[in-house]
Every structure is written in C-alpha cells, then in structure tokens.
Design the sequence.
C-alpha cells in the first residue's frame, strides 16, 4: 500500500511500484512532495493526520546522519500503518543501535569505544568515521576482498580521518605500508586483542576508538 524511499537515492526514486502512496523523505529542508524531512536539527513528519516534529536528531542514540534517513523511513512506515506521532518520536529517541553497527560499546578512561565490527566495506567504514566527532583511532584487519587495490582504497579513505591505525591479521603488513606512506601512525599485530590494546594505549580522554 505504500513505498518509502530517500530523496537522495536516484534508483529508489525511479523504482516502479504499484503502491498507492510514495512516501519520500529528505535529509534537508522540505521540498514539494516530501513526506518527511530534516530542518534545524528536527526530524519532521509532513504527512498523515498529525504532521509535525518527531524528535531532535540530538535525541537519537543512533549516531550518524545516515541514521536520519533510517529514522525517517521507519517513521513514515509507522505513520502509514496508523502509529501516533508522539509514539513514533518516543520510539526513535529510545531506539538503541544494533550490535556491531556503530554501537557505543563503553567508555574507558574517558575514551569512547564504538563497535562497528559488522563493517566489511570501505564505504561503511567511511560513513562510521564521518559520524564520529573529534579525534578517532581505528582498529581494523582481516583481508581485502579486492586484492592489493583494496588496501590502497582503504588507506586513501582512512588517512584524513584517523589519528592512528592499529591493524591485525592478514591485512596488517600490506595495509600498514599504504597507511604509513600517507602519513598515518600505524601499529601492526597478529591478533585483534593486541591491536585493541595498542589503540587504547594511544587514545586519550575525550577521543574515540572505532
């Protein structure tokens, strides 16, 4: 009965559907035809029986602007199914991140530790790094899906975003070379636990570890 999509997704915008309602959300000021948008930090519902503000983005436990899209998509679906606007706003503000998806795992000596272990693509790692404020130390490893070209792409994505990189596993030797060549402070280890200890030793109060 309804189709929810983001205004910034050209593929979704042109998707052919028999749904009677096309509910478009926008990560910016309202434009004609939008069913939800973000303005002055507020997630706003523009359709249904009770349009208006849902909640402020600062109230979300979900970190990152990409989650504003997720929140609006969920809000539109809930509204289309008859949910009350106040209930939707409360649900968004109390929704916790899914495990391993930019989840605040804890605070240690003033360092915020985020678990983004589900990320196996450079793009999702970039998105996570762009969502964190201040100085970020990165722990990563495994092996490249793209061969040597993948290590170079990863290094390009990380070099301007992280203060240090603590690497582990098969990726550590090659990725450490590419990161050092781009001026990143790097340590390489065999095991994740060793890399995590090294990152914690470098991070200072008020900084973040991903």
Sequence:
């Amino acid at each position: 009965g309804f189709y929810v999509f983001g205004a910034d997704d050209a593929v979704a915008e042109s998707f052919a559907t028999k749904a009677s309602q096309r509910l478009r959300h926008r990560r910016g000021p309202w434009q004609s035809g939008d069913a939800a948008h973000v303005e002055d930090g507020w997630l706003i519902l523009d359709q249904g029986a009770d349009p208006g503000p849902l909640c402020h983005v600062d109230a979300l436990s979900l970190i990152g602007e990409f989650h504003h899209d997720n929140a609006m998509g969920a809000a539109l679906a809930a509204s289309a199914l008859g949910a009350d606007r106040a209930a939707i706003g409360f649900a968004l503000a109390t929704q916790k991140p899914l495990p391993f998806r930019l989840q605040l795992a804890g605070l240690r000596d003033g360092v915020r530790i985020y678990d983004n272990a589900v990320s196996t693509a450079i793009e999702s790692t970039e998105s996570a790094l762009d969502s964190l404020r201040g100085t970020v130390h990165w722990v990563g490893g495994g092996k490249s899906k793209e061969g040597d070209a993948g290590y170079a792409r990863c290094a390009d994505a990380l070099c301007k975003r992280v203060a240090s990189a603590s690497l582990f596993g098969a990726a550590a030797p090659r990725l450490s070379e590419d990161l050092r060549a781009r001026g990143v402070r790097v340590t390489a280890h065999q095991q994740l636990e060793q890399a995590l200890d090294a990152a914690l030793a470098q991070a200072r109060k008020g900084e973040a570890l991903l």
In short: The chain has a mean pLDDT of 94.
